[in-house]
Design goal:
Helix content is 26%, strand content 24%. The chain is of the alpha+beta class. The chain has one domain: Alpha-Beta Complex (Sulfite Oxidase, Chain A, domain 2). β3 and β4 form a beta hairpin. The protein binds the ligand Nc1nc2c(c(=O)[nH]1)N[C@H]1C(S)=C(S)[C@@H](COP(=O)(O)O)O[C@H]1N2 and molybdenum atom.
Length: 235
């Protein structure tokens, strides 16, 4: 797997912040215990509600509507080559069960297929079929702590994004490894990329290698967001 010094630095930044969260979470001054216990109850419910009450799906298109030539490769840094057998998807941060998953393990999980419109802020769109695993399934496996509110995605090309937890748990938010019925190509983000009908194209990170659940956003919010683009970027 490709890891540049730059992405290692970002890794340290992210783990620094979630480390602070862990430290506070582990604070066991007896004077706080009762109050903290009560205060956390509604937050637990909030995460569970997001996990178990599926949000409304976005209407999809028939397979015949796919526009194979309209999805423009849009890559702003160099295209990273990831060796599929070495690949690990890391899920960490504010979770009870950090994960390191191989591609095979991910592909053995239930697969979801959807035909949706991809919309790039630069003025083009394409109807695409994506196949992959629901991000909500992966997040559930990692067992998020009650205080989780945001999710960071780090890519092998040093691209980075942050999303709100609710959008991550939407049933049509996938980590895709298939496009238009074929294995995902390297240019389109293989081995794993985000795909969702609820967000603009720049939120949909290609070559995702690390997912970090956090309780607050860092000053860095995303590759384009940090240059002035909107953070929520909903469709
Ligand atoms: N890692 C990474 N992810 C990325 C990008 C990128 O440059 N690097 N470009 C984004 C933009 S602006 C769009 S529109 C889509 C394009 O996806 P495609 O190249 O598969 O068409 O990927 C998004 N995800
Ligand atoms: Mo885009």
């Amino acid at each position: 797997m490709l890891t540049s010094p730059f992405s290692r630095r970002r890794f340290l930044q992210l783990s620094g912040i979630s480390g602070t969260g862990l430290l506070l979470g582990g604070c066991s001054l007896p004077i706080f215990e009762g109050a903290v216990g009560r205060a956390f109850e509604p937050l637990n419910q909030r995460v569970e509600e997001l996990l178990f009450n599926p949000q409304k799906p976005v209407p999809e298109f028939p397979l015949s509507a796919i526009e194979p030539d309209r999805l423009i490769i849009n890559t702003f840094r160099s295209t990273p080559i990831i060796e599929p057998t070495d690949f690990r998807l890391i899920i960490r941060g504010e979770v009870e069960q950090p994960l390191s998953l191989s591609l095979q393990e991910i592909q053995q999980m239930p697969r979801t297929s959807m035909v949706i419109r991809h919309v790039c802020v630069e003025g083009w769109a394409a109807i695409v079929q994506w196949g992959g695993v629901r991000l909500s399934e992966l997040i559930q496996r990692a067992t998020p702590k009650a205080n989780v509110r945001y999710v960071y995605f780090e890519s092998a090309d040093d691209y980075y994004e942050s999303w709100d937890l609710r959008s991550c748990l939407h049933p049509q938010t996938l980590l895709a490894y298939q496009k238009n019925g074929q294995p995902l190509s390297i240019e389109n983000g293989a081995p794993l990329r985000l795909a969702a009908p609820t967000k603009l194209g720049y939120k949909q990170s290609k070559w995702v290698t690390r997912i970090t659940l956090v309780n607050q956003l860092l000053p860095q919010r995303g590759y384009w967001e940090d240059q002035g683009y909107e953070w929520f970027a909903g469709l």
